[in-house]
Design a protein that fits this description.
By secondary structure, the chain is mainly α. The chain is built from eight helices and two strands, in the order H-H-H-E-E-H-H-H-H-H.
């Protein structure tokens, strides 16, 4: 009996690992570039072992031909990358908001390494990304990401052809929605910069000999930080609601 049960258990665990591993490598907080790959693989393998007894009935039997494993694994990896990528798109709203705020505050050239993006980015964008990640874990929203891993087998059963057309439509909608959320978070700074630039233009027309833009820049930066202190809490709550609503789309129970 062990000779029959052991291959089935290994097959189901590795099939689950194909989807869970792909999701963990992309999910925010778990798949960040600064987290060692071995740690991510350990988390994915641990989740696969825990989920195997729960999801074993939802998995297909072992295929008779080894070649049949390729489409199964490819489909599972594609579904995992899609779900993890969609959740990561939710976090990019903070990066977009940070870039817009940086330019409105005349800090667009203040660059630093953004660990969430794995590249150089605007200083305020990096601050927003790191703070958003901290808020996600403080609000226990990472638990919802773990629930989305298991509920994905109810939304996208194993051994079925992934709905590529729906995936593409959902991805385009989420990209647009993330940009919209980032624009809404940075809306107070856009309104502030618009009023400030109009006033600077009027002063420049009245006093052409005065270097208005050079003089007002310190004031512009200081007022931007004041506005950030006023709206930062509301902006983070707005983002957390957006993030929670996005992950809820992948939850069944």
């Amino acid at each position: 009996m062990l000779a029959e049960v052991l291959p089935a258990t290994i097959f189901s665990t590795l099939l689950i690992f194909a989807r869970v591993g792909a999701m963990i490598m992309v999910l925010p907080g778990f798949g960040e570039p600064y987290i060692p790959p071995r740690v991510r693989l350990g988390i994915a393998m641990g989740l696969s072992i825990v989920l195997q007894p729960v999801l074993v009935d939802a998995l297909p039997p072992i295929p008779a031909q080894p070649v049949s494993l390729l489409p199964l694994i490819a489909g599972e990896v594609l579904i995992g990358v899609f779900i993890g990528g969609m959740v990561r798109l939710l976090v990019t709203a903070l990066h977009v908001a940070g870039i817009i705020i940086s330019f409105q505050a005349s800090l667009g050239f203040a660059q630093s390494f953004d660990p969430a993006q794995g590249a150089q980015g605007a200083l305020i964008g990096s601050f927003f990304s790191i703070m958003g990640m901290v808020m996600i874990f403080m609000a226990d929203l990472h638990h919802m990401m773990m629930f989305a891993v298991s509920d994905s087998y109810l939304l996208f059963p194993a051994a079925t052809v992934p709905p590529l057309e729906d995936f593409a439509r959902t991805a385009s909608n989420w990209v647009a929605n993330s940009f919209l959320i980032g624009l809404q978070i940075s809306a107070p700074f856009i309104a502030y910069a618009l009023v400030l630039y109009i006033g600077m233009g009027l002063v420049n027309r009245l006093m052409p000999q005065m270097q208005v833009f050079f003089i007002v820049m310190p004031l512009q930066i200081m007022l931007a930080f004041v506005i950030m202190m006023m709206v930062l809490g509301a902006s983070m709550m707005w983002f957390l609601e957006h993030f929670e609503a996005g992950i809820a789309m992948f939850l069944v129970s």
